[in-house]
Amino acid sequence: MDYSFWSTATHYYQLIETAFSYEHGYRLGVSIVIFLFFWLFRNKFTKYILYLLIKICNTKATANEYLITAFRCPLVNTIVALGTYLALRNIFPLTYDHLLDQLLRSFIVLFMAHGIHTLVKLYGNNVEELGNVLDINVDKILIPFFSKMIRFLILSLAFVTICSNWGYDINGFIAGLGLGGLAFALAAKDLLANIFSGMVIIADRPFSIGDWIKTSDLEGTIEDINFRSTKIRTFEHALVTVPNSNLINAPIINFTKREMRRITFNLGVTYDTPSHALKKCIEKIQYMLVQHPSIDNKTIFVKFDSFGESGLQIFMYFFTKTTIWEEYLNIKQDINFQILKILEEENVSIAFPRTSHYFETPLQIVNPAQSILTKE
Fold this sequence. Notes:
Layout: H1 2-19, H2 22-40, H3 42-57, H4 61-91, H5 97-125, H6 127-134, H7 142-165, H8 170-187, H9 189-204, E1 212-214, E2 219-225, E3 229-234, E4 239-243, H10 244-248, E5 253-254, E6 261-269, H11 275-291, E7 295-307, E8 312-320, H12 325-345, H13 368-375
Antiparallel strand pairs: 1-2, 1-5, 2-3, 3-4, 6-8, 7-8
Helix pairs in contact: 2-4, 3-4, 4-5, 5-7, 11-12
């Protein structure tokens, strides 16, 4: 018993002596200095690395802002992780070197994946800037869709890389995903139908984000298209989420795709309008529309159409050169004022609904005063 006690005490004494030895204390001090150095100068290192990255990429101001926003935090974390790694390697030069190497590689992969993920998201949210960088015309519906897909692939690749770094069997994992995917496909066929319908929308492009569309059930502006559904903002400012499979099978009217907007209506004038005045009005309205800068002069019809119940009907049919709602209303208002001016110049009155009554026996109108005197 005495031998065992003294053996254990001697062992712990040697550990304490080693821990507080000069060499170990020196390593601990150097490690603290290394960590503090990387911690205190992490922002300086980050700015320098970003400066070199911008110089190498030679991008524009907006792209530089995106690079800084996306990689500032990951670079700071990477520098702190590197300082921690070097400090711990100095304390444990041989004992935990493999574990520390694995941790450092995993953190670097994770931080860089986060930076690339953020960069793709920023460009996905700004389609115009992406088009300027690539010098191509990009589609508003295509870019957000593929942005989400690329971000998912980035996270998946980072996960697989980290698992491989720690020695996990990736082949077995992928095979398990295949079997799980089959079971998932059988259990979620509606979800997959919506996803494939979303791909059809991407390929066929019946509409894009920002387009004004109309179906048999709703009408509004496209706000977002994702893997499962499409979000439509109605004119009552309600947000409607429609499954892609329902939308792809429905007839869709895309008002944004049209090049012009139609104006058509009947103008009724009174029956006492002389024929020459009616002809003059029609000619002046026709000329006014042909000369109007906002009206397409290829298709203009101003005709004496029919004899209506309340007046003579002038049929008008023409197109504006704009499809923007507010501009369309302003043009329509201007034309209405000019038509009123033409009618005033020709002394032609606008007809309004009225009813005429006919009696088989003519009514006798009696003077009320005379009727009273007769009775007296």
